[in-house]
């Protein structure tokens, strides 16, 4: 594997700006919590993007879905993940949403770790998915989650 330091350019049509101020998740005053003893970042800022997908009920025996994602730093893949989900989802939306949550959790930790190693990560992480329902529920500030989460014993 070769690390490609070339800067990745975000296509302007891929991520349209939204006004999150009226949402309960509004952006006013939000900042990432970083420790005071964090090393000073060196070099150029790195741009991170992720491709996420899942296959609904792909395991023919257990009917569980598989989560997969690839993380790129600039133009180089630095991490890939593929694992069977722990729950058995009844819809494609559910399995894609679990995959998106798994990728977001990983990215949150990775951004922190990169910063603690002195890598400059100033921009948001761009996450690509192929399920329109999940994208609508996670990128539109006026959207309410249309998935009922229920756990039965």
Automatic annotation (TrEMBL):
Q: Which domain of life is it from?
A: Eukaryota
Task: State the PANTHER family in the record.
Answer: GAG-POL-RELATED RETROTRANSPOSON, PEPTIDE SYNTHASE GLIP-LIKE, PUTATIVE (AFU_ORTHOLOGUE AFUA_3G12920)-RELATED
- By what name is this protein known? Reverse transcriptase Ty1/copia-type domain-containing protein
The organism named in the record is: Thalassiosira oceanica (Marine diatom)
Q: What is the lineage of its organism?
A: Eukaryota, Sar, Stramenopiles, Ochrophyta, Bacillariophyta
């Amino acid at each position: 594997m070769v690390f490609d330091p070339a800067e990745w350019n975000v296509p302007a049509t891929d991520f349209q700006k939204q006004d999150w101020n009226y949402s309960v998740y509004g952006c006013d005053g939000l900042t990432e919590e970083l420790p005071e003893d964090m090393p000073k970042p060196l070099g150029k800022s790195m741009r991170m993007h992720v491709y996420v997908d899942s296959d609904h009920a792909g395991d023919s025996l257990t009917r569980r879905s598989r989560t997969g994602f690839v993380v790129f730093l600039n133009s180089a893949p630095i991490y890939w993940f593929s694992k069977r989900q722990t729950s058995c989802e009844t819809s494609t939306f559910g399995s894609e949403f679990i995959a998106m949550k798994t990728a977001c959790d990983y990215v949150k930790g990775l951004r922190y770790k990169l910063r603690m190693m002195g890598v400059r990560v100033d921009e948001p992480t761009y996450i690509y998915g192929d399920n329109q329902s999940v994208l609508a529920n996670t990128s539109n500030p006026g959207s309410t989650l249309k998935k009922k989460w229920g756990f039965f014993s």
